[in-house]
Design a protein that fits this description.
The protein is of the alpha/beta class. It contains 10 helices and 12 strands. It has 2 domains: 4-197, HUPs (Rossmann fold, 3-Layer(aba) Sandwich), CATH 3.40.50.620; 210-312, GMP Synthetase, Chain A, domain 3 (2-Layer Sandwich), CATH 3.30.300.10. The longest helix is centred in the middle third of the chain and has 26 residues, at 98-123. The protein binds xanthosine-5'-monophosphate (XMP). Residues 2-199 form the GMPS ATP-PPase domain.
């Protein structure tokens, strides 16, 4: 029968059987899934796991600091932080097609993991090889990416359909059969704090798939500001538990005319995409209070230069997906 403690015991046994006495690395994204996957594997193989946090420059405001602080404090895991923002920006230059972005980001992640692997081996060459890559892939990721067949049904999740073909790692994916609510229960069972377990989902490719158009440093900076304002106001209004997540999307190739002070503006719109959902397979748009929407809109247009319109996405999934790309 399905109980979280059964799932934990089964997965720990399966991980031990798969990894044996060798070593693994786990990409931490700051999200629930990779945190729970890492905590499970750590339970199974202890410090033969090294977590790697790749700062790809597509993170939200404050996210990197949070991973370094919260997760390490909660688990005591070995953590390696890699600043790879230049590398990702270079790889993404000129890319605006959503699937190509996802594949580019997936490929760069793996390249960074390979480098991290080499460094870990160099630091302790006598130890067992680092052969495994732990990922927090969930059941819906597998389904929407076409079951890892390489052909995306809907979109290539960065850790499934976005992997390069010449992957040198064997994958360890202890959450592959679970839905998000089950992952949260497993995380609780493992003793992870609420700040991690109840965190809203955030996609591995980060803000890279929330800029419709090419990803540049300037655009990322704009979006990071707008997103931080929206999150701050939603939290202040006590709405974090009511919504599943609220992507903020920059329509970077769209401009519209506005007026501010006594001047004409010609800026970009951002889209608010608040949704409610059980498992992200389907979703409905959240009926947020108008006064909260008004505060977010006023603050974003006042505080983020270049953004002169805030629009609300009122599409369910289907037919829309949660993210715009
Ligand atoms: P969609 O846009 O497919 O999103 O309706 C469903 C859920 O998955 C998240 N998402 C991702 N998570 N890697 C992830 O770790 C990805 O590549 C990815 N793409 C989408 C999205 O935020 C939503 O919660």
């Amino acid at each position: 029968s399905w109980t979280t403690s059964n799932v934990v015991d089964e997965q720990i046994a399966a991980i031990r059987a798969q990894v044996g006495d060798r070593r693994a690395i786990c990409g931490l994204s700051g999200g629930v899934d990779s945190a729970v996957a890492a905590a499970l594997v750590q339970r199974a193989i202890g410090d033969r796991l090294t977590c790697v946090y790749v700062d790809h420059g597509l993170m939200r405001k404050g996210e990197t600091e949070q991973v370094e602080k919260d997760f390490v404090a909660a688990t005591g895991v070995r953590l390696k932080v890699v600043d790879a923002s230049e590398r990702f920006l270079t790889a993404l230059a000129g890319v605006s097609d959503p699937e190509q972005k996802r594949k580019t980001i997936g490929r760069e992640f793996i390249r960074v993991f390979e480098q991290a692997q080499a460094e870990i081996v160099a630091e302790a060459p006598g130890d067992q090889p680092v052969e495994f890559l732990v990922q927090g892939t969930l059941y819906p990721d597998v389904v929407e990416s076409g079951g890892g067949t390489g052909t995306a049904n809907i979109k290539s999740h960065h850790n499934v359909g976005g992997l390069p073909e010449d992957l040198e790692f064997a994958l360890v994916e202890p959450l592959r059969k679970l839905f998000k609510d089950e992952v949260r229960m497993v995380g609780q069972e493992l003793g992870l704090p609420d700040e991690i377990v109840q965190r809203q989902p955030f996609p591995g490719p980060g803000l890279g798939i929330r800029i419709v158009g090419e990803v540049t440093k300037e655009r990322l900076d704009l979006l990071r500001e707008a997103d931080a304002i929206a999150r701050e106001e939603l939290t202040a209004a006590g709405l974090d538990r009511d919504i599943w997540q609220c992507p903020v999307v920059l329509l970077a190739d769209v401009r519209s005319v506005g007026v501010q002070g006594d001047g004409r503006t010609y800026g970009h719109p951002v889209v608010l995409r608040p949704v409610s959902s059980e498992d992200a397979m389907t979703a409905d748009w959240s009926r947020l209070p108008y006064d909260v929407l008004a505060r977010i809109s006023t603050r974003i247009t006042n505080e983020v230069a270049e953004v002169n319109r805030v629009v609300l996405d009122v599409t369910s999934k289907p037919p829309g997906t949660i993210e715009w790309e």
